[in-house]
Amino acid sequence: MTDLPTEAPTHDREDTGPLPVLAIVGRPNVGKSTLVNRIIGRREAVVEDTPGVTRDRVSYDANWAGREFTVVDTGGWDPDAVGMAALVAAQAEVAINAADAVLFVVDAVVGITDADEAVVRVLRKSGKPVVLAANKVDDQRIESEAMNLWSLGIGEPYPVSGMHGRGTGDLLDAVLAALPEAPAERDGEVGGPRRVAIVGKPNVGKSSLLNKVAKEDRVVVSDVAGTTVDPVDELITLGGQEWRFIDTAGIRRKVKNVQGHEYYASLRTNAAIERAEVVVVVIDASESLTEQDLRIMNAVEEAGKALVIAYNKWDLMDEERRYYLEREIDRDLVQFRWAPRVNISALTGWHMDRLVPAIEAALEGWQTRVPTGQLNAFLGRLVAAHPHPVRSGKQPKILFGTQATTMPPTFAIFTSGQIEASYQRFIERRLREDFGFVGSPIHVQIRARQKNKKR
């Protein structure tokens, strides 16, 4: 029977103190991300046959036998790595040092390689408890070959199949034995940190922005577009409070037009937007605004999330270029004038202190509620000054309105007949002028009174 962990809680779990951390390491393409998905009980880590799909250390919440812990998936560790692969290996070593225990994954079909032995030396030096997983053991024949991994000298190899779930129950029992107990629940704390997703096209500086706000290299940064694949969650303290920042893969084009791991990365980026409360859209100031930039912002607005626009690499512009760029932005972003905009440099930290106030302002607008009495007084003044145009001898009247929800602010306007789309946009614009809603989309729903049909 396949061993399958129970569904782990989502990232939105209530914070009850730091959970024990399990780092999953191994050389490229041994099936670490497949095993991660098996452990957390859902397909969240990007999996593809191509080596090197995972590049950053990515955290997930897991639950086994009633105990919660954090799983950190890492990129493939290669002792001879250069370039981006060396950055990935460095992230894996950081994960080992930060973990309470390590799950070392070896491909049982291939057997022990020089790279595996190099990983063992790093693990011994770390002094962390190690559980050895012999992965890709899909049948009894390969299970006997997995016993050869005893020669690594780091304990019993647990034969498992990340693909089919074979043996993962025994493996997770061993993992729990290696991990320390989670601390007792802290009293009086409810909810979790505010969730901020960082999105944008590839290579606009999203990962650099996350590293800068974290004040350390949390994720891999490279000039190669598409370095980030999985959404990367990081808890960061800024402005005296804790935030959960989510770095996402660059959105190149419409999801239906991408293939391979880019397709799954795009889906996970869209899921990160849905999970976030406020989205920071990063735009490269050294390039002209593109249709893809606008498509991303439209996606945030349609998802009903608070929005902050960050123009990165602003320090690369001279004074004359900045002067004209400001005017281009006013023209190109006319439909998003309600969103706070910050001009920053994620590389140097220039004006990064403006980011948190912009995020806080957007969240405040996103949560704004207008009392019903105040709203109807506003609608009365609006209709008196600018009544709906008469069409075919008819003039629909606004009867009353109410704010149905916040996050985002959503209004139900009850009318005697259908309202023209232009007049509905006029109402939205005047709502912003009177009540603000900085950084938040607002939705106005017209509910026309139905006439009784004669029988």
From TrEMBL:
Stored InterPro entries: AAA+_ATPase (IPR003593), G_ENGA (IPR031166), GTP-bd (IPR006073), GTPase_Der (IPR016484), KH_dom-like (IPR032859), KH_dom-like_a/b (IPR015946), P-loop_NTPase (IPR027417), Small_GTP-bd (IPR005225)
CDD domains: EngA1, EngA2
Protein's UniProt keywords contain Repressor: no
Domain EngA-type G: 20-183, 194-367
Keyword field: GTP-binding, Nucleotide-binding, Repeat, Ribosome biogenesis
Binding site for GTP 2: 200-207, 247-251, 312-315
Record: residues binding GTP 1: 26-33, 73-77, 135-138
Function: GTPase that plays an essential role in the late steps of ribosome biogenesis.
Assembly information from the UniProt record: Associates with the 50S ribosomal subunit.
Name of the protein this chain belongs to: GTPase Der
Gene: der
